[in-house]
Amino acid sequence: SEERTLAMIKPDGVSGNYTEEIKTIVVEAGFNIVKEMLTQLDKETASAFYEEHSSRSFFPHLVTYMTSGPVLVMVLEKRNAVSDWRDLIGPTDAEKAKISHPHSIRALCGKNSQKNCVHGSDSTSSAEREIKFFFKDVVSGDIATQQ
Ligand code: CMP
What we know:
It is a single chain. With about 150 residues, this protein is an alpha+beta fold. The protein has one domain (about 1-135): Nucleoside diphosphate kinase-like domain (Alpha-Beta Plaits, 2-Layer Sandwich), CATH 3.30.70.141. It contains 9 helices and 4 strands, in the order βααβααβαααβαα. Strands 2-3-1-4 form a 4-stranded antiparallel β-sheet, with helices on both faces. Bound molecules: adenosine-3',5'-cyclic-monophosphate. Adenosine-3',5'-cyclic-monophosphate binds near residues 62, 92, 113 and 116. This is Nucleoside diphosphate kinase-like domain. Keywords: ATP-binding, Cell projection, Hydrolase, Kinase, Nucleotide-binding, Signal, Transferase.
């Protein structure tokens, strides 16, 4: 059955003008782009999104990188969307991806283990959390508190 995952074109992908090429690959691979949002992450948002990595030595660099420019956040839908998107983007380390997965998106536009151009949810539970993180539906209660 249909499944959804959260995909993101990171700042290096957007500033490197890879957005259209990546979206073409996404659609040709059979994904439906059901939501998209171009946004600039601030420190607080990037830190919350990557909370699970907060104890890692690279965390401060990760937050600096992810706040360095706009990102394109997308909700992708297809059968097996989570694992199929992970397969399409390739390994975390783009340098290794260029050798082991030369047709992957990270081989196309990533640079190394940090500047790896794109994000993909690593499980269906992560996908659910990450989709809610960026696309929390505005309900009547939210509207009331905004006024
Ligand atoms: P991703 O796997 O999408 O989510 C965690 C991110 O942290 C990862 O992409 C990289 O951008 C970054 N990252 C992971 N490992 C390292 C590392 N060893 N050094 C720097 N950044 C990293």
